[in-house]
């Protein structure tokens, strides 16, 4: 039995999220369907670094699975990509130790969120960036980003529907905002993320950019630990799981 680790890309526009669901098209469902064909009808269950919601994209989602087959990694990649739909692609396949776990061994994740900052929408970007037509103070957003870095309790920035038990403390190594032309890129790197955390954080940063809040409000919001203090969760289509980092893969 071999354990294989895969880095996968997907366009989340036509998926009902990552996790398998009855009668819905999901990333996990398509991957397990392809693996079932390769294994002549045998069920092969995959484990992922984490779930993504409907509409969320990935360039660095990581999965692992076990297989009785002894196949070169390049052949695995070619065979799976032949069976997968064109909005889901296996970028890399490596053999790892049987103790490796895509979720529990992850030490850092990076998400990026893209905003299309123009008065009019771009129909070609509607599934890949959040259209935000309002005036923004990017310098104020950058000041606010600094308050989010470090170890904090992110209860205020977590969905009330979150099922996470235990501590809501997470450490963010980087929170940044850069505007290039009409596109704004937010980068968030951390040791873990709560449900909807990135989308809620970016929503608050956009409020600050509009002058609805001041950058130092972030400190108060973190201390209050109350999701009701901030606005609605912004749309999924601007969000990308960019990279998942591991200590080492043997």
What would you say this structure looks like, in words?
This protein has 250 residues and is an alpha+beta fold. The chain folds into 2 domains: 2-104, Pseudouridine synthase I, catalytic domain, N-terminal subdomain (Alpha-Beta Plaits, 2-Layer Sandwich), CATH 3.30.70.580; 106-245, Alpha-Beta Plaits, CATH 3.30.70.660. It contains 5 helices and 10 strands; from the N terminus they run βαββαβββαβββααβ. It has helices spanning 27-38, 73-83, 138-148, 197-209, 217-224, and strands spanning 2-10, 47-48, 57-67, 88-96, 106-116, 130-131, 150-153, 169-180, 183-190, 239-246.
Topology:
Elements: E1 2-10, H1 27-38, E2 47-48, E3 57-67, H2 73-83, E4 88-96, E5 106-116, E6 130-131, H3 138-148, E7 150-153, E8 169-180, E9 183-190, H4 197-209, H5 217-224, E10 239-246
Parallel strand pairs: 3-10, 5-6
Antiparallel strand pairs: 1-3, 1-4, 2-3, 5-9, 5-10, 7-8, 8-9
Helix pairs in contact: 3-4
Give a quick precis of the structure:
By secondary structure, this protein is of the alpha+beta class. It is built from five helices and ten strands; from the N terminus they run E-H-E-E-H-E-E-E-H-E-E-E-H-H-E.
Key features?
about 250 residues, alpha+beta, Alpha-Beta Plaits, 10-stranded mixed β-sheet, 5 helices, globular
């Amino acid at each position: 039995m071999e354990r294989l680790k895969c880095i996968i890309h997907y366009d989340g526009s036509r998926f009902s999220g990552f996790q398998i669901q009855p009668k819905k098209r999901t990333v996990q469902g398509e991957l397990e369907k392809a693996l079932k064909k390769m294994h002549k009808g045998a069920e092969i269950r995959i484990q992922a670094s984490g779930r993504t919601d409907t509409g969320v994209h990935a360039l660095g989602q990581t999965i692992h699975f076990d297989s009785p087959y002894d196949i070169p990694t390049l052949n695995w990649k070619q065979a799976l990509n032949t069976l997968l739909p064109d909005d889901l692609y296996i970028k890399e396949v490596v053999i790892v130790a049987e103790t490796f776990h895509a979720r529990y061994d992850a030490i850092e994740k990076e998400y990026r969120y893209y905003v299309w900052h123009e008065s009019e929408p771009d129909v070609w970007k509607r599934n890949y960036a959040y259209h935000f037509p309002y005036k923004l103070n990017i310098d104020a957003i950058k000041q606010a980003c600094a308050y989010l870095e470090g170890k904090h309790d992110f209860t205020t920035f977590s969905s009330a529907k979150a099922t996470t038990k235990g501590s809501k403390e997470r450490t963010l190594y980087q929170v940044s905002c850069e505007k290039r032309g009409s596109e704004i890129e937010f980068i968030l790197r951390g040791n873990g993320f709560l449900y909807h955390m990135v989308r809620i954080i970016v929503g608050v940063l956009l409020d600050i950019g509009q002058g609805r809040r001041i950058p130092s409000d972030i400190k108060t919001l973190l201390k209050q630990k109350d999701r009701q203090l901030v606005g609605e969760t912004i749309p999924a289509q601007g969000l990308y799981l960019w990279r998942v980092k591991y200590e080492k893969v043997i």
